[in-house]
Design a protein that fits this description.
mainly alpha, 4 helices, elongated
Length: 108
């Protein structure tokens, strides 16, 4: 069990950096796109909302562990390890779409 959990942590935590950077790039793009109006949205309340959304995005990212660990315990463990990048791409794509909608709404 220790090896399975360690393997999941090793894999997913390296990807978390790219996940967060990808979402941050989307927010920055929409921020720049709506300059100078977007500068008016930066308030303390906005920063708190941004923080909460970032934490929620990372909580959602952590759900990948559930799928990964479950499949590592299955008989498909070896083939899963070669294809789990697909889960990352799907999760990042979903998070990017959700982030885009929030960013569009925040800076308008």
């Amino acid at each position: 069990m220790k090896e399975i959990f360690s393997n999941a942590i090793r894999y997913w935590e390296k990807k978390r950096i790219f996940y967060n950077l990808g979402l941050l790039v989307i927010v920055i793009i929409y921020f720049i796109k709506h300059l100078p109006k977007s500068l008016d949205t930066i308030t303390f309340d906005w920063m708190l909302i941004f923080f909460v959304l970032a934490v929620l995005a990372n909580v959602c990212y952590s759900f990948a562990y559930i799928v990964d660990i479950y499949l590592q315990f299955s008989e498909f463990s070896e083939s899963w390890k070669k294809r789990r990048w697909i889960l990352f791409v799907i999760g990042l794509s979903l998070a990017a779409v959700i982030t885009r909608f929030f960013a569009m709404d925040m800076f308008i």
